Amino acid sequence: MSIKSTAFGRVVLTDADAKKFVNQVTYGKPKQAARESVARGLSLSRQLRETGSFTLKVREQA
After folding, report:
1. d(Cα 1, Cα 20) in Å, to the nearest integer?
2. Measured distance CA(26)–CA(20) in Å, rounded
3. 2-49 pLDDT, tens per residue?
4. Rounded-to-integer distance, Cα 11 and Cα 29, Å
5. Which residues contact 3 (CB under 8 A, 6 or more apart)?
6. pTM assigned to the model
């Protein structure tokens, strides 16, 4: 794999990696955990827009 980056955060994928990335974006299917994470984020975003605040509860991971 060949990834080039700079101190300013630019990332350049080369050749096969760029093709693989484009295919993943176009044809890839998100994992269930990603879907759940997006749903939680959307919920928090809606709540922030409507009320101006939201509450996070921190829990320990097993």
Report:
1. 11
2. 10
3. 566 667 777 777 888 888 888 988 998 989 999 999 999 999 999 999
4. 23
5. 11, 12, 13, 14, 17
6. 0.51
The partner residues of 33 in beta bridges, in order of sequence, read none
Q: Which residue has the tokens 């922030």?
A: 48
Cβ atoms of residues 54 and 44 within 8 Å: yes
The domain spans of the chain are 15-51
Alpha-carbon distances, residue 3 vs 8, 19, 22, 23, 35 (angstroms): 14, 13, 15, 17, 27
